Amino acid sequence: MKLFDAHCHLQDPRIISKAPQLISSAVASGVSSFAVNGVSEKDWNLVKEMGVKYPSVVPCFGIHPWYVAERSPHWFETLKSLFETTPSAAVGEIGLDKGSKGREIDFSDQVGVFRQQLELAKELNKPASIHCVRAFGDLLEITKSVGPFPAGVILHSYLGSAEMVPEFAKLGAYFSFSGFLMSMSEKKAKKMLKAVPSDRILLETDSPDALPKSESGDLYFVEGDPSLSEEVNSPQDLESNASSGGSMKLPKETLNHPANIHIVLGYVARLLDMKNEELAELSYRNAVRLFSYPGSKLLLEKGAADVSGGTQDNSTTHVPSSS
């Protein structure tokens, strides 16, 4: 069983020093690829370096709405040049935010930066990973005016309504689900999930954020997480995937390990009345299709497999190592 983490932030300062171990253990658990999203000019080169170092990392570059005010006067030229030198990269994280943090950022400024990046993604024929908080009406209006998107867009950690799903799907959207889905009522989440076309479902961790809830005690923890007690951070607990995790009240700052995509898989599969293996295969194929744009690592690996005599479809040949 293979999984594709369609959106995460392994370059985040909270976990970057642990990235080799996190990637290694996640890959060992069955996660074959990670779409690592930059959020500002400050981390783009770090994301690029991770893409070079780890075959399993798909680099993504973009300005997140929270960091719009920090951009330099030449941010767009820098972004375009990065895509020229890094053909394997996708676009992200970009978006709109009217939540508590987003309200601190001028919304017209957010819209301008978002639209520029969305238009660039379409021009480059690359998928874009989109953050949207309390701005789905605005997002739909902008995506309708810029789209459709043959290369796809990812509505990451989607928490919008079931009613909006068909509108976004018509434009080429994929819907990616993380531990944040557990903040929705199960009834509402199930209705929304059932509205998503099966060929547009993705799974993600948004690591190091979006820690999923788990009653079965099978969470992976990030070793050395400062939010956890020394007992939880002991090697014994970490090696057993924190067997006591189901009975603990975890701090909201607890870091999310990318291997916790398995918890998201189980939750989404249960709400969709699917077997874990079935949803894993479906979401993996969807992610491989989406990330097989010109220049992508997935296409390059398929080409190498074809040259060596491989005849499998590209949705089943991508098995990169973590080193």
TrEMBL record:
UniProt KW keywords: Metal-binding
Matching SUPFAM superfamilies: Metallo-dependent hydrolases (SSF51556)
UniProt binding sites for a divalent metal cation 2: H131, H156
Region Disordered, residue ranges: 225-253
Species the sequence originates in: Eruca vesicaria subsp. sativa
Residues given in the record as a divalent metal cation 1 binding sites: H7, H9, E93, D206
Residue ranges, compositional bias (Polar residues): 230-246
Protein name listed in UniProt: TatD related DNase
PANTHER family assigned to the protein according to its UniProt record, in alphabetical order: OS04G0577500 PROTEIN, OSJNBA0020J04.13 PROTEIN
Pfam families: TatD_DNase
Taxonomic classification: Eukaryota, Viridiplantae, Streptophyta, Embryophyta, Tracheophyta
